[in-house]
Amino acid sequence: MQLSQRPVSARVSSVPVGLRAAQEVRYRRAQSTGPVAGREVEDGETWARLLRSSAPLHALRLQGLDLRRDRELLLARSDLSDIVVLGGRLDEEIEEHLREHGTIIFPAAHRSPVDPYRAHLYTPQELYAGLEDDGYAGTVDARAYAWFEDATIRHDAYVTALRAIHDDAMSDALTSLVLGRVVVGVMGGHALRRGSDDFAAAALLGHRLAEAGALVVTGGGPGAMEAANLGAWASDEAVLADALHALAGVPDFAPDIAAWVRPALAQRGQGRGGTGLRSLGIPTWYYGHEPPNAFAQQIAKFFSNAVREDLLLAHSRDGLVVLPGAAGTVQEVFQMATRLYYEVDLAEQPLPPLVLVGRAHWTEQLPVWPLLQALARERRMSAVLHLVDTVDEAAAVVTHGVRSRTPAVRDQG
């Protein structure tokens, strides 16, 4: 084989880059649809039924169960190899029996302020438990953030495993919750202040979407996220107006998170929300300085922001509306654009609309729109990109499709 005598630098160092289009590789990505049916056992009734059946128990995942119930049935079984017990309750005899027959046990006795093995999402009331007695620092949410930030355990392999197990459980619970629902995401900046017209507009957007039958999902934090969750939660515009007025007295979560969340929790406590599940938040302890808002009826909170971001956009399968924001919001726009560009998990179905709200913001202040248009040229995604000025225009784009896909479920509110 004859080697070129010319150095690489002589050949390419002064050649303009990017003039020749490269052939792209199209791919299909495996998208999690939740736990495998029958493998992960999360309730005592299912576990008791399995113990009474003749089916083998090998390779089950037992999550947060009290294994002391039906103990005689369990102690009579020997087909327990490759079972993984994630937390829950068991005594010494049951633990010894399980280990003798090849079961792996992750202990429940740990210092985590949250249960890593929980099989369901959080509520705001759970995350803010302890607020009235000890202030925000004493809440479950704040203690989980401190556990995440603790430098003494940051690189502890066991703690890392617990956080990963927690996030996997959150992902499964989230996927189960949104199954069969029409889901529309709303993104926007955390700095949007209560009491402003833009905050009210974001809340009206959430309300319009929920009234059209969508489950409104946000990043679960303050600002535009809280506003959209608030609007989705409110049963009508009169309730929304009252809530906006009540919240305006504490415009920001800094410097006092407790003062910021109390009026929101008070509004939730009045029971004036709409029927069923309308409002969902997906925040992260990675940005733990941004507290979860109280208007997300269910909260899937993650330690990993990468997992959280991916799931937030993957589950916005019926549309994504993006209000003005800064770097984090821009990142979400292009993560969604990437999914649309490569048609990730979408090759054989309609692409969801991506709607940017605020022409001046997205064309002048942060000129994202021209780049989106360039990416979309001669691709299917070009038909689903929209730039509008008002939340009514944004809602009209998304609800046009939402109303034709009546959600199968609206419970668990």
UniProtKB/TrEMBL annotation:
InterPro entries: LDcluster4 (IPR041164), LOG_fam (IPR031100), LOG_family_nucleotidases (IPR052341)
Annotated protein name in UniProt: Rossmann fold nucleotide-binding protein
Short name of one Pfam family: Lysine_decarbox
Organism field: Ornithinimicrobium tianjinense
Gene Ontology annotations for the cellular component aspect, listed alphabetically: cytosol
Gene3D superfamilies assigned: 3.40.50.450
Signal peptide (from-to): none
